[in-house]
Every structure is written in structure tokens, then in C-alpha cells.
Amino acid sequence: MDSIRLLSKNMKIEGNPFFGSSSSHQRNQIFLKFVAFSLLIGLAYRFIVTNSTVSPVTQLPTPPDSPSGLTALAQPPASSGNITTPTIASQNVSSKCDIFTGKWVPDPSGPVYTNVTCRHIQDHQNCLSNGRPDVNYLLWRWQPRDCHLPRFNPEQFLQQMRNKWWAFIGDSISRNHVQSLICILSQVEEVEEIYHDKEYRSKIWRFPSHNFTLSVIWSPFLLKAETFENLDGVSFSDIQLHLDMLDHTWTDQYSNFDYVVISGGKWFLKTSIFHENNTLSGCHYCQGKNNLTELGYLYSYRKALRLVLDFVAEPTHEAQVLFRTTTPDHFENGEWNTGGFCNRTMPITDSSQGEMKTEDVSMRDIELEEFHKTTTLQQQANIGLLDTTSMSLLRPDGHPGPYRYPNPFDGVKKKNSELNHIQNDCLHWCLPGPIDSWNDLMVELMLNRELHR
Fold first, then answer.
1. pTM
2. d(Cα 422, Cα 143) in Å, to the nearest integer?
3. What are the structural domain ranges in the chain?
4. Is 284 one of the annotated active-site residues of the chain?
5. Which of 360, 425, 436, 440 is catalytic?
6. Where do the segments described as Disordered lie (predicted)?
7. pLDDT value at position 37?
8. Out of 90, 134, 171, 172, which one is annotated catalytic?
């Protein structure tokens, strides 16, 4: 830069260097100096710009000898570079925008919390603490196709939720979801746990300075059910499912809630005996036991959703409700108990590569049918649809996989027969991870509901 200043100083001459009384030789010298100055300025500009351009997504490839065998599905597309200031809900969402249709785009800012700054992450979802070696799955955000959806602002959210009660009702995915929300909010105010049941499946928290209460209620069927299984999910007797009775665990508390997120799903795939009108009416996958009729999981799931949606749509129930759709899993080459795994490290960027399993497709079809039936018959019902299925399908990289346990490959040789004995979790989500984006949609739907009816 000193040479540029010196050259510029030498070129400061009186009058116009091309017109005046100077000699031809002097004009030629001045012209050459001007050309040299221009070239030097151009080279300096190019050097500065080239060296200031940095890739917006950190590239941390898995080492070739990693025992996890993690594989990338797609390379991250170039970032637009537009980082949005967080707001409580989108200020630029156009009327009737479909926030569920879109794609995952690079977000180099990363999550708003980490496994260090949040102490509420369940061990099975604490992927980084459990030794997951890659981090690219943290650097994406959901972008609707036709509108803008920034992250919500936790400070403003807590202000708006002052003296309110928010409840999540469902299975372990609901617990996964509420832990994500707590981790985001705890960056503003630390939360207090004020209740848990004996199994730590249902919990209540409170943000004291805002008197904001948050609950998760364990009710995997949403119906009255007797389940018989150990902590590893292995059943030792058939589930007894009452298709005409809601689970009082959540209905008895319902009048306390201002906002409710409710969901069902995977538990209906388990072997179940159906009860209706105090009699055995059939079963799902009971293999001819007691000469019962095989009615299937779709029969029981439709019955459950009809009962649930009729209940929450009653005019006397004032809580605002979101019904969340089913969550697809990403097990490959088997299921959770047959050696299935999920070792992807990147999102699906081509929607044609994402294909849901038949069970997920069928369950989501029933969810949409029953939801639209409810909103058509009761147009004033305080029910919205939180359709996270499609966006979740595009994130096979966001699950714990083998990292549901700490350092799962310690002492394990790299042989397929041995790796198959490592249990993978390809249903729940790492925290932080893709499920954090569910909260952006959830808050947008709750607080700007009229735009999304």
C-alpha cells in the first residue's frame, strides 16, 4: 500500500496531464505512470477480495478410518449469505404461505445452543457428547419455498408466554421436541423442573421470572392403554388398547393449558389387542391369538385421532392446539432391532431421493384426512396442523444412529458382523439438530395462525 501512495503522490501534477503546455515526452511519461497505477490498484483489489472470501459451511469430513462408516449424501449448496436477525415469528410471511414446503439451506451461524450450554438434553440424544465425529448436520436451517421464516426470538417468546402454560402430549418424539424448545429458551432464562413421574417420562418445568409453565405428558397412544415392556422397549405381553376411551393422564389436565402440541404415530405399529364397548373387538398383528379379527394399525390410529380431535375441538376447550404429523424414520438395511442403521452426514437436497415407508405414508394420509374433516365441520376450532413430516424426511443425517450411547465403537473391530450388534437410533433427533427447526414453524403457526388457516 505504501508503493501505491508513493505512485499516487508522484502523479499529482498541476493541470490536465493530457492537455496543456507539457512536452510530448513528459506526456508519455505521465501516461505510462497512470497505466501502472491503474494496474497496481486492480491487482491489490483482486488480492483483497479473493482472500476475504470464506466458505459459509464448515467442511469437517469424517476421517477415512472412522469406525462409524459415516457417509455423505449430498454436498451443501452455496449459501446465499443472508443471515436473518431472529424474530419471534416471521414478519415477512406472505398470506397463506405454505411454510411446510421448502428445502434445507446452509446456515453457518449454527444452532442457538450447544450440548455445553444446555443441560436438559437426554443422554440418548446428546450426539456430540456421545462421540459423533461430524458436525455438518448442525449447519442447516429450513427455508420455505415462497416465504421467509426466521428463527423465533426466545426473549420475545417468553415475554409473550408470561403466565401461560404450554403442553406437549405424545410419545418420546414429543419429549425430544420439548427438550429442544427448553434448550433454546434456557439461553435466556434457566428453567426449573418442578415435577416428574416415576419413569421420568412426564415432566413439568417453569420459567420463574415469566411464570411460564411447560409440560410434556407421556401418552404414546393418546388413548387408555395398558402396556407391558421393559426400559429397552421389549414387550413381554400384548398391549391392551381401548379405542373408545381417551387417556385421562392428559385429559384431566387439559383445562390448565393455553397451548397444546399433540401427536401420535409409531406406537400404533406395536402388537395390540383392541377393546371397544367393554369387549374385545380385534387386534393388530396378534397372529390369530384368541381368534381375534386382524383389524390393523390403521384402524386403531384412525379411531384414536377421531376421538382426540373431537375432544380438543369442543367449544368449551379454549386451548390453542397444534396437531403434529408423523415422524419418518431413516433406518436402512433393517429396523432398530435387526441391524438397521443411519450413517448419512448430509441432508437430502433432491426431494426425489426421499421416499417414505409405506407405514408412514398411510399414517400421514389418515392424519390429514381426519384433521381436514375436523376443520371442515368445526371451522372455529382452535386447531392447526404442524406438518413436519416432509421437512423431516429430508434429514437422514440428523439422528443419533450409533451415538445414542457414549463412544459406541470403543473396542469394536471393524467387521460387519460386529457392527451389526450396535443398536442404532434412526427415529429420534440429535440435540442440537434438525428438530430445532420444528420450533420455528410451531411458533409461527401459534402466533400467526390466521395466515396459515
1. 0.79
2. 35
3. 2-52, 102-452
4. no
5. 425
6. 57-81
7. 46
8. 172
